[in-house]
Design a protein that fits this description.
The chain has 262 residues and is an alpha+beta fold. 34% of the residues lie in helices and 31% in strands. The protein contains seven helices and 14 strands. It has a six-stranded mixed beta sheet with strand order 3-8-14-11-10-9. It has a four-stranded mixed beta sheet with strand order 7-6-12-13. The longest helix is centred in the N-terminal third of the chain and has 25 residues, at 66-90. The two termini are 20 Å apart.
Amino acid sequence: DIRDSTGLTARLVEQGLNPASHFSMRFFDPINTVAEAYGGIKVFIEGDAVIFSFLEYDHSPQQWFSVARACGMARAMLDIIRASNRYSQQANLPLLETGIGICYRNDAPQYLFDGDRPIMISSAVAGADRRSSCAWQLREYLQDSPFQVEAVEMPDGHGQSVRQMYYNVNGVCLEPEAFAKLESEISLQSFTASVGGASHHFYRGEYPDTSGRRKQLLIREGRTGSWLDGVYSAGKQSSSPFYEVVADPGLLKKIGGEDIEA
């Protein structure tokens, strides 16, 4: 999810730049280049969203690393965005903000066709879209968080159900079903570490990209907080878990060690 693309486009035009060329050079082309290393297939671009699929096939079980590779590509995408923003900052251009969501489904997707162009139909798309979003209510409360992703439950006002909201600023939110699939793909080492004065639960693991190169992942397990009457409360140990693919270079170095790379 690319935030405020309309505003970004307007500001680029005001500065005499071609938005299509700028986005191609600083975002789309670099992402297309790294996709092959992770097995990512661009499904389509819808508004501000870019959607990739990572498929597994019955005849190639040695390549069943779809979630691990999706996590790796998500981190590579954020590295590209950080590099783009460093350039934009020097050139006094607007910065990119994104959010990434990763979902897994254990069934084959369906397809519609726009001419010869396939359009994938899967509930994973809608789930990833929700997790890539950032609720405006949470920004003020969580902008100083040491993490890029938080999950919050908000009652519907009738006591019947709750709605889940996400804080996701240049982060990667991994749904629990996708995390369970990741656990089946690679061996994960569980450990705790102190961040921001509190103890947090992490998982470290290693996976192969499509060329067989070994790469590392660091996953944080968070607990879903609550939002009631305009007040945010952090999650408790008994709250339902959510997962974040750690992508911040400073946090990776502090928690994961020097060997953690995309």
